[in-house]
Every structure is written in C-alpha cells, then in structure tokens.
C-alpha cells in the first residue's frame, strides 16, 4: 500500500515522500523492469498525492477560519459522515450555506497547520488517509492553542472527482492514562 511521510524541506514546507508502493504499482514496476507489457497506474494511485496536498490545504484553511477557501477545496459526498473531535453521535451531510460557513469562520480563527500522513490505503474507488493534523488556532473564543487531531478520512471516486465520504477525528494525539480514558468514557 502507498504510504507517505511528512518531511520538512527548506523553509519548513512539508514534503510528502513515498515510502512504500501499492500492491497494484509493485507488479507494474516489476513487469516494466523485465520488458513485458506495462499497464497504466490506477487512477486512485495517481490521485493520491493531489488528495494529500488538498487535504493539507483544507485543514489549514479551516483552522484559519477561511471557510470560503476551505469550501472551494473540498467536495463532500452526498452521504458524508462526520465523527467530530468533540464527541457525540456521527453527523450526516453538511450545511454549506453561507450562513453556516460564516458561523464556522467566527468559531475557528487565526490558525494553521500541517499534515502528517501516517498511512494511506488505495483500493479501486476508495482512498483512505490515516493522519495527524498538527494545527493550532483560536477555537470557540479560546486563546490560540494546539488543536492537533488524529484523523481518518475516506475518499470515494465519482467519475474524475474524489469526494470526502467520511471523517473521524479525535484530540488524543498525546497518550493518556487508562484512568483519564475511563473518565472520558464516563462523560466526565
């Protein structure tokens, strides 16, 4: 499976570097080395680097409160589900009205961040990213602080487009004790 790691280049700009090859790309490379027939790389393999870049731009725009830019970068699937980092039940769909985007822009402000892709899975019409969003910002009127999240996102292909079908995020980037986890499970 393809896997990208976030490296830092000059100027602290993140660079994603492939560390392994997908199951589909490996045989293709082997056939190419032997001079036999080579098949084209699947569209999902070709789309992965662009989806990673776009996902990082989306996260930074969201934390900055730039919801106009965020909305221009993201395409949500019709049956999109969200498991929010603040807990509670999954939400379905998304209200992309100007009023709701303005409300989000007031709630998330003056932030930014980068993406660390821990693992990516590419399979036919699905791409899954397992990542850490290293981010900060002012959220809900609180002062600027670290708001890094562990995130899993599932993208589904629709023709030549890739839409976000599912996002699950939680703030447990740093390890917590069993007792702390138990308190959270109890709703404390």
What does the model show?
This protein has 188 residues and is of the alpha+beta class. It has 5 helices and 9 strands; from the N terminus they run ββαααββαβββββα. The chain has helices at residues 25-34, 43-64, 67-73, 98-107, 178-185; strands at 3-8, 14-20, 76-83, 91-92, 108-123, 126-139, 145-146, 149-158, 161-170. The strands form 2 sheets. Strands 3, 4, 5, 6, 7, 8 and 9 form a 7-stranded mixed beta sheet that branches. A hairpin with a 2-residue loop joins strand 8 (149-158) and strand 9. 20% of the residues are buried. Residues 1-40 have low confidence and may be disordered.
Topology (elements, then pairings):
Blueprint lengths: L2 E6 L5 E7 L4 H10 L8 H22 L2 H7 L2 E8 L7 E2 L5 H10 E16 L2 E14 L5 E2 L2 E10 L2 E10 L7 H8 L3
Parallel strand pairs: 3-9
Antiparallel strand pairs: 1-2, 3-4, 5-6, 6-7, 6-8, 8-9
Helix pairs in contact: 2-3
Q: Describe the biggest sheet? A: 7 strands, mixed
What does the overall shape look like?
globular
Task: Spell out the helices and strands N to C.
Answer: EEHHHEEHEEEEEH
Strand content: 35-45%
Helix content: 25-40%
Salient structural properties:
188 residues; alpha+beta; two-stranded antiparallel ribbon; 5 helices; 9 strands
